[in-house]
Amino acid sequence: MMTTGNRVRTCVVALAILLCTAGAPVAQDAEFTERELEVIDERIRSFILANPEVVLRSLRELQEQTELEQVEQRRGLVRDLVAEIEQDPDDPVLGNPDGDVTLVEFFDYQCGFCKRMASPLFETARADGRVRLVMKEFPILGPVSEIAARAALASRRQDRYEDMHIALMSVRGKLTEQAVLQTARELGLDVDRLEADMADPELARIYGKVRALANRLDINGTPTLIIGDELVAGAIDAGRLQALIDEARAPG
Predict the structure, then answer these.
(1) What is the rounded CA–CA span in Å between residue 242 and residue 121?
(2) What is the pLDDT of residue 195?
(3) Mean pLDDT across the chain, nearest whole number?
(4) 153-158 average pLDDT score
(5) Which one, of 109, 135, 110, lies nearest residue 122 by Cα?
(6) How distant, in Å, are the alpha carbons of 36, 180, 225 from that of 169?
(7) How far apart are CA 127 and CA 208, in angstroms?
């Protein structure tokens, strides 16, 4: 597949050749001699030096077009995978389970930007009242992230996932296994039962499935949000979040 960089170089060369040889008939199967290639190369350099604004404008337009194509390709992929994204029964669902808009978050408990997103996400969902939150446990920042994901998923068996999720997102400083278990203890969970449930391979299967989905969607960072067919990488504020919700809810 041609990279953006290669497309840019191809565009510049093609543009320069077309402008430098305008009006000159060129056979479709023409082969250039070494001397002719040198002449073309020199004309390209001269053209670029004499018309930098044309080249820069062409590069900007190419970049914008490439980005638009990538966005549309991603939207199409999101639409194709909507069932896995929004309706996987293994994913915890918060907010309004019967909401008219589904907002999906891929997150890691050690991700500072995810922690920053936590309050705006839940406050916006509560204030709206019609948002269904699908939580994709996506531990990508090391072994402790996996421990935290297993603890959160295991807490579902004590009907405390939301409490555990919010508490883990509120932990300040370095997250450790001891900090994860202490968080559960402070919430009043049965920690012995939690640790036993955390050892269940089923939990690793759940976030392993999320990783596979993220790979198909080319998601490699957290937080990543999906709402409708929009995929948004990185933390956003409450205003932008509500705007995305309103766009997804708008008819048509």
Answers:
(1) 9
(2) 98
(3) 86
(4) 98
(5) 135
(6) 64, 11, 16
(7) 32
Tokens, residue 89: 């029964």
Which are the contacts of 191, defined by CB distance < 8 A and separation ≥ 6?
181, 184, 185
Size of the chain in residues: 252
Distance CA 249, CA 39 (A): 58
Question: What type of residue is 210?
Answer: V
Beta strand pairing call for 230-233 and 131-137: unpaired
Q: β-pairing, 93-95 with 131-137? A: antiparallel
pLDDT band at 160 (very low <50, low <70, confident <90, very high): very high
Question: pTM of the entire structure?
Answer: 0.74
> CA–CA separation, 22 vs 11, rounded Å?
16
8 Å CB contact between 139 and 210: no
Residue range 64-116, pLDDT digits in tens: 666 666 667 788 889 999 999 999 999 999 999 999 999 999 999 999 999 99
Query: Burial letters for 163-185: b for 16+ Cβ neighbours within 10 Å, e otherwise?
Result: bbbebbbebeeebeeebbbebbe
Concatenated DSSP letters of 32-48: --HHHHHHHHHHHHHHH
CA-CA distance, 28 to 38, in Å (whole number)? 20
Tokens representing residue 144 in the block = 């402790």
pLDDT value at 225 more than 70? yes
What is the distance between the alpha carbons of residues 218 and 224, in angstroms, rounded to a whole number?
Answer: 11
Average confidence (pLDDT) over 238-250: 94
Task: Tokens for 137, please give them.
Answer: 């446990």
